[in-house]
Write a structure and sequence with these properties.
Helix content: 25-40%
Number of strands: 5
Order of helices and strands: HHEEHEEEH
Distance between the termini: 53 Å
Strand order of the largest sheet: 1-2-3-5-4
Number of helices: 4
Strand content: 15-25%
Number of domains: 1
Structural class: alpha+beta
Radius of gyration: 18 Å
Shape: elongated
């Protein structure tokens, strides 16, 4: 009996973990479905952010070509600094006044935290919550 319990406990813990992640994903997808009226591409997001007075910079390529990440900031950033942002560490000072817009959305959902992330159209935002609110109006 003790051996059976020892074998089943890790399975139960993993099952509960998967269930919690599925519930979180369900909530994220519901939010995305409700707010799918934002930008659909990084180009649209860059124009919207610049139109609101933010500084924008490609987080992918030094030549400015947008591929997967757009860095948005309330102050000018160098390309090097834009690439030192620490995903998964929302309390790090690098995020002060800075957020990143990412695509594809599903590739970043594991980073979703309502205090530091948002769904904006078909894009994922992560970083300074105040900047995200000013950018998206959420």
């Amino acid at each position: 009996m003790r051996t059976l319990r020892r074998l089943l406990l890790p399975v139960a813990v993993v099952t509960v973990g998967i269930a919690v992640q599925l519930l979180l994903l369900r909530g994220v997808l519901r939010q995305w479905a409700e707010r799918n009226d934002g930008p659909q591409t990084l180009g649209e997001a860059a124009r919207a952010a610049a139109g609101r007075g933010f500084h924008v910079l490609s987080g992918d390529r030094r030549d400015g070509t947008l591929a997967n990440r757009l860095v948005v900031s309330d102050r000018p950033l160098s390309w090097e600094r834009a690439n030192l942002l620490r995903f998964g560490d929302p309390h790090h000072p690098c995020w002060a006044g800075t957020a990143v817009v990412c695509t594809p959305l599903r590739g970043y959902l594991n980073l979703y935290d309502p205090d530091y992330a948002a769904i904006w159209g078909r894009l994922f935002l992560y970083g300074d919550r105040g900047l995200i609110r000013r950018l998206t109006g959420q």
